[in-house]
Amino acid sequence: MKRVLMLASVASMIDQFNMPNIALLQKLGYQVDVTCNFIEGNTCSDERVAELKQKLQDMHVRCYQIDFARNIKHMGQNMRALRQVEGLMKQNGYAFCHCHSPIGGVVARIAGHRTRTKVIYTAHGFHFYQGAPVMNWLVYYPVEKVLSRWTDVLITINHEDYARAKKKFHAGKTYYLPGIGINLERFHAGDVETIQQKRQELGLQPEEVFLLSVGELSDRKNHVVVIEAMKQLVQRHSQLRYFICGQGEKKQELQQLIRKYHLEDHVKLLGFRTDVAELCQAADVFVFPSKQEGLPVALMEAMACEVPVVCSRIRGNTDLVKNGENGYLVSADQPEEYIQAIEKLLRIWKNTEEVRQMRKNNRARIKQYSLQKIDKIMENIYR
Description:
Number of helices: 15
Radius of gyration: 21 Å
Order of helices and strands: EHEHEHEHEHEHEHEHEHEHEHEHEHHH
Number of domains: 2
CATH architecture of the largest domain: 3-Layer(aba) Sandwich
InterPro entries: Glyco_trans_1, Glyco_trans_4-like_N
CATH class of the largest domain: Alpha Beta
Number of strands: 13
Largest sheet: 7 strands, parallel
Pfam families: Glyco_trans_4_4, Glycos_transf_1
GO molecular function: glycosyltransferase activity
Organism: Roseburia faecis
Domain Glycosyltransferase subfamily 4-like N-terminal: 23-161
Helix content: 40-55%
Shape: globular
Oligomer: single chain
CATH superfamily of the largest domain: Glycogen Phosphorylase B
């Protein structure tokens, strides 16, 4: 039986993005090994990582701890990771390695080149993009261009990245993949009972409007801009309640900002959650203020649950949201634009037909990103 290596810098990327790929590879007859950092840098809880390792073990997947650092500045730690991955490739003679994340992609392609191991690299959104900081272009673009020569298959997940990779890079093959696939059987509009139960769990009153965000508590996910908007919104709309799912390094900073603006009754940090589908079903508006995305899973899951969205006008988001059709696009760093978009949704709320159409448009649009469609594309790539 041929062996393949699934590689990411952190375990949360395996958990959130690659379990369907692992199942597909096993279906195709491969023995799958997984390597990542199970200990540090994850965006999910330690308990969730432990559950992931147990699930992989139950699937007869071998797991290897690699000491990746998420920060590109930690060169010593990532050089150690390179030696570990190179040794693993030499030892096991993989048919190919499927790697993810910028750090994982760099390490895997260098190790693959040295050991003559075929490499498939999924770019979950290049760090250089239209409007990106100049430093991102100076640091990441040259690295990706050089390493594309050691990339047998490059998979991009949004139209901007695909066009640039086809024109500027040198991978053996380049594909556009519409995301990682959304489980439409799990993410769908909720029934009345589910919605009421989840709202009660959150302490929401019937007249209150439930705004939801899902994402790591980091600068990139940009939750601070919505909290800034809420400072003004609640003065005019006291019925608004904003909940944020996720954990990360910005938790304390966000908590301090909530206290500073006296928003304790209006803004709540829920931490890492395993009931995201039910939360999306219960939400009235999904707010997604991220500064940088590839093709955002959280946004697609909310759309599958037929939630109207307010999101930043950035690469990836613009692949999914058409202004006024299934939500509103706003400037990522402008609280006033979030205020205007949320108030616009509040104004049309009484026009049930307009809101109903927006919900239907979200569900219809997301069908092309279903897990079944993505699996068919990945099966052709893996073969």
